[in-house]
Amino acid sequence: DVVSLRREGQAGHGVINGVNVYRIQERVLDEKGKLSYLTKLMRFFIKSSVFISKRNMSNKYDLIHIHSVPDFEVFAAWLPKLLGTKIILDVHDIVPEFYASKFSVKKSSSVFKALILAEKASASFADHVIIANHIWEKTITSRSVKKEKCTTMLNYPDSSLFYKRPRRRPDGKFIMLYPGTLNWHQGLDIAIKAFALIKDQVPGAEFHIYGEGSSKGPLRDLVAGLSLGDRVFIRDVLPIEEIAAIMSDADLGVVPKRNDSFGGEAFSTKIFEFMALGVPVIASGTKIDRYYFNDSLVEFFEPENEKDLAQAMLKMVRDHALRESLARNASRYIKQNSWDERKTDYFNLVDDLVGKA
């Protein structure tokens, strides 16, 4: 069973590849502040707690794998935990730093310290903690959980969707593409400004952005203000099957994250996805991306430097051999760093927790 949010128009229940998906609360990206954001988290916490407790009474779960944000969602499994169910807390985004970035909160604030306490309590409640990258593993094991209770697992792309395929687009344009959340730390404003600096030098180039998030309105305003409406296109989020096909037809992936305390350490699965599709990537030289990649795999630019990004864009548009080299090296890299190669680590963890050989 999967218990999740739902997008507008989705059914409350569906079956995907034999998995029951229960969409118990609609997700609308319209938070105007901390209170509205917290209210939605609490609503889902209460609804999921009731739902999981009822389901567990009729068909006991062996394992519940809970995805953060927020960390405290792990307590929705309080009744199954009491009855012997094993609990994994999967920290996709490290909450104190995520909150500080989203709402401009200082690390010295009482709110930030309270979120660390919540992180500690949540990790203590869980039987095991999964963390999404090795830098965050160092952070969380230094303050909230013992190293032996924590496993690092990157978020790998689905190889049934993200694979190299024949090109379908014969229009002769050079398409740069970003797919994902449209939040401030993703740095899309930097990328749009960089594109504006080179648009006249590459008249056949376009920048396509797909996604939802709090920055969508301001980004559209920026595009209009720079008179880029015929070259930069901000489109709605699409199902993953559709966006994978669109990404595969791009000439260049752009991942322009800011190098702040959150964005600089948040691993972007988009880079892996582009690599699996055979599409070369420009990426901000953040702490996390420099940790996992090098110059033979992606074209780096100085974080938050629109002029440096503009030069990197221009270089990639003009240098076909460089694009081919990066894509070729990245394809070899992703074969060694994929879910197909790493899934046994997760299966072994599950077997250890539920006591099956």
Summarize this entry quickly.
This protein has helices at 34-58, 78-82, 95-103, 110-125, 134-143, 188-198, 216-225, 240-248, 269-277, 287-292, 306-318, 320-336, 339-354; strands spanning 2-6, 13-16, 19-26, 63-68, 86-91, 128-131, 150-152, 174-179, 205-210, 232-235, 252-255, 281-284, 299-301.
Structural class: alpha/beta
- The end-to-end distance, rounded to whole angstroms, is 23 Å
Q: Give the radius of gyration.
A: 21 Å
Q: How would you spell out the order of helices and strands?
A: EEEHEHEHHEHEEHEHEHEHEHEHHH
Number of continuous helical runs: 13
Helix content: 40-55%
Task: Give, in spatial order, the strands making up the sheet with the most strands.
Answer: 10-9-8-11-12-13
Main sheet characteristics: 6 strands, parallel
Write the layout of secondary structure elements.
Blueprint: E1 2-6, E2 13-16, E3 19-26, H1 34-58, E4 63-68, H2 78-82, E5 86-91, H3 95-103, H4 110-125, E6 128-131, H5 134-143, E7 150-152, E8 174-179, H6 188-198, E9 205-210, H7 216-225, E10 232-235, H8 240-248, E11 252-255, H9 269-277, E12 281-284, H10 287-292, E13 299-301, H11 306-318, H12 320-336, H13 339-354
Parallel strand pairs: 1-3, 4-5, 5-6, 6-7, 8-9, 8-11, 9-10, 11-12, 12-13
Antiparallel strand pairs: 2-3
